[in-house]
């Protein structure tokens, strides 16, 4: 009976020691198109301090868990996967388009910035001694200034000798 009692006490102590051991949890990061963030192993009850990912043209808003904002002050108690939340970062630069006007064959030009999705205001007709201005051309066609601009364009002045 004493032998069984000793085995029982040892068994109980082992269970207590194993149960008190440090439990580790794996935290995975899905940066949703941003820079990759390495998985982290966190001890039970520890708080998480993840890196901040980068995604061109976007502002990082934080991490989410199951569609809800994840509180970084919360203790980790299980394996989880956090997903990055982003907001498109609209700047004047990212919302504008450059239009370049070449006035003559010598490379003289002017540049205008136009908001994407709008039309260009037609500039004053340039003057070139001994020539008549025929119009602004995009490639080989006269440019229609009512056209909505979505990308960078180059317009060239066409001339006819007098």
Number of domains: 2
Strand order of the largest sheet: 2-1-5-3-4
Mean pLDDT: 83
* Radius of gyration, whole Å: 33 Å
> Stretches where pLDDT falls below 50 for ≥5 residues?
13-19
Q: Which CATH top level class of the largest domain fits?
A: Mainly Beta
Largest sheet: 5 strands, mixed
What percent of residues adopt helix (DSSP H or I)?
A: 10-25%
User: In angstroms, what separates the terminal alpha carbons?
Assistant: 123 Å
CATH-defined architecture of the largest domain: Sandwich
Q: What is the ordering of alpha helices and beta strands?
A: HEEEEEEEEEEEE
- Tally of strands: 12
In CATH, what is the homologous superfamily of the largest domain? Listeria-Bacteroides repeat domain
Shape type: rod-shaped
Strand content: 35-45%
The helix/strand class is: mainly beta
At CATH level 3, the topology of the largest domain is Immunoglobulin-like
Q: Number of helix segments?
A: 1
Task: Explain the layout of strands and helices.
Layout: H1 2-19, E1 24-30, E2 40-43, E3 58-65, E4 68-69, E5 80-88, E6 96-102, E7 109-115, E8 118-119, E9 131-138, E10 141-142, E11 148-149, E12 153-161
Parallel strand pairs: 1-5, 6-12
Antiparallel strand pairs: 1-2, 3-4, 3-5, 6-7, 8-11, 9-10, 9-12
């Amino acid at each position: 009976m004493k032998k069984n009692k000793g085995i029982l006490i040892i068994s109980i102590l082992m269970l207590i020691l194993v149960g008190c051991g440090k439990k580790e949890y794996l935290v995975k990061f899905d940066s949703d198109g941003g820079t990759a963030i390495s998985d982290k192993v966190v001890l039970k009850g520890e708080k998480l301090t993840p890196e901040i990912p980068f995604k061109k043209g976007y502002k990082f808003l934080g991490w989410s868990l199951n569609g809800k904002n994840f509180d970084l002050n919360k203790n980790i108690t299980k394996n989880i996967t956090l997903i990055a939340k982003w907001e498109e970062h609209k700047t004047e630069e990212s919302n504008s388009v450059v239009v370049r006007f070449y006035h003559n064959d010598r490379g003289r030009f002017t540049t205008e910035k136009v908001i994407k999705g709008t039309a260009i205001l037609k500039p004053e007709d340039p003057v070139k001694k001994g020539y008549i201005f025929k119009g602004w051309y995009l490639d080989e066609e006269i440019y229609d200034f009512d056209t909505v601009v979505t990308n960078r364009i180059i317009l060239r002045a066409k001339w006819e000798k007098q």
